Amino acid sequence: MKALTVNAFKPYAEHKVEEQPSQPMKPGHVRIDVKAAGLNFPDILMVEGKYQIRPPFPFTPGSECAGIVTELADDVPHLKVGDRVAAMVMNGAFASEVLAPMMVTWPIGDMPFETAAGMALVYGTSYYGLKQRGQLQDGETLLVLGAAGGVGLAAVELGKAMGAKVIAAASTAEKLAVCSEHGADELINYTSEDLKARLKELGGCDVIYDPVGDKFAEPAMRTLKWYGRYLVIGFAAGEIPKIPLNLALLKSIDIRGVFWGTWTMKSPKEHQANMGEILGMYKSGKIKPRISNTYPLEEFARACDELTQRRAMGKVILTMG
Ligand SMILES: NC(=O)c1ccc[n+]([C@@H]2O[C@H](COP(=O)([O-])OP(=O)(O)OC[C@H]3O[C@@H](n4cnc5c(N)ncnc54)[C@H](OP(=O)(O)O)[C@@H]3O)[C@@H](O)[C@H]2O)c1
């Protein structure tokens, strides 16, 4: 099989696809002929040694994929050879074949592989963030920063589906147009507009979903209402903001961390329930995953460029050919 192979931490453009032997079948596992895999920001951090998890070498990155079941362990009751499935794995999705635990493999029906490969992480993170951590309520106002990115656009759609008024903030008019297509009620271009002033004009917000960090965190937090919730999702802009704690005191604000990957392992039943609800929203048309672009696995570096150069609008997908 072919697999993107990380032999040392180095810039993402230097990693190559190599031939690797197939892994032997293990109890409770499913072998998948991978058709597509979702690229996520943490994958880039991981291959460069900048992520909180640093796997031993050699490793193949990638945490989500979709494809066709080619082999099963004897103890896998709910799947059969030929099923179309998606899977979430710790690592190894950027390959033509994956051995996935059955617990994290689910049937996808007739959903396109590219869509299925890019749904779990962004919708899973954003739903856990808004539902379990943010406790977003019908009628509340949600601000999403970096709203056209992978997790951002998912948060816009889920916020709408949960009954919130959604304010999308992003860096270009083109990105904001995409947010509007996906349901955002109000749009703020934080490159050309004063984020705090516009948010105050709009009446402030109850929940902030922040995957960007850096210079927007504090002005946005200053517009939270009484009992507001600020969700710490990530730091795509690079800098981890330092927040004056008096802001939390003045309006009884909660600053809530969101680490979806660890939560899925600590609370597998709640996670599965969330994924079931997300699938239900997809089937009823409440969420419409957007693919920004697809690239062959061999063009991993170009796919990463789309994220690091802030061009992605929705999901970037790798295909195995
Ligand atoms: N907490 C969790 O469990 C969890 C799970 C998944 C992802 N994350 C984190 O969430 C963040 C976003 O992930 P993603 O996959 O949605 O990434 P993405 O698609 O690249 O979106 C990130 C957004 O951040 C904004 N941004 C601002 N400065 C940037 C810069 N210098 N480089 C890149 N983007 C910049 C961009 O929007 P504008 O151009 O509009 O500013 C971009 O759309 C990452 O930090 C990731 O690690 C966290």
Describe the global form: globular
* Total count of strands: 15
* CATH classification, class level of the largest domain: Alpha Beta
Hetero groups bound? NADP nicotinamide-adenine-dinucleotide phosphate
Task: Report on this structure.
The relative contact order is 0.15. It is globular and about 60 Å long. The strands form 3 sheets. Strands 3, 4, 5, 6, 7, 14 and 15 form a 7-stranded mixed sheet that branches. Strands 10-9-8-11-12-13 form a 6-stranded parallel sheet, sandwiched between helices. The protein has a two-stranded antiparallel sheet with strand order 1-2. The mean pLDDT is about 95. It has 2 domains: about 1-120 and about 290-320, Quinone Oxidoreductase, Chain A, domain 1; about 120-260, Rossmann fold (3-Layer(aba) Sandwich), CATH 3.40.50. Helix 3 (about 120-135) crosses helix 10 (about 270-285). About 30% of the residues lie in helices and about 25% in strands. It has helices at about 40-45, 115, 120-135, 150-160, 175-180, 195-200, 215-220, 245-250, 260-265, 270-285, 300-310; strands spanning about 1-5, 15-20, 30-40, 65-70, 85-90, 95-100, 105, 140-145, 165-170, 185-190, 205-210, 225-230, 255, 290-295, 315-320. The longest helix has 16 residues, at about 270-285. Helix 11 (about 300-310) links the parallel strand 14 (about 290-295) and strand 15. It has about 325 residues and is an alpha/beta fold. The protein binds NADP nicotinamide-adenine-dinucleotide phosphate (NAP). NADP nicotinamide-adenine-dinucleotide phosphate binds near residues 121, 212, 234, 260 and 308.
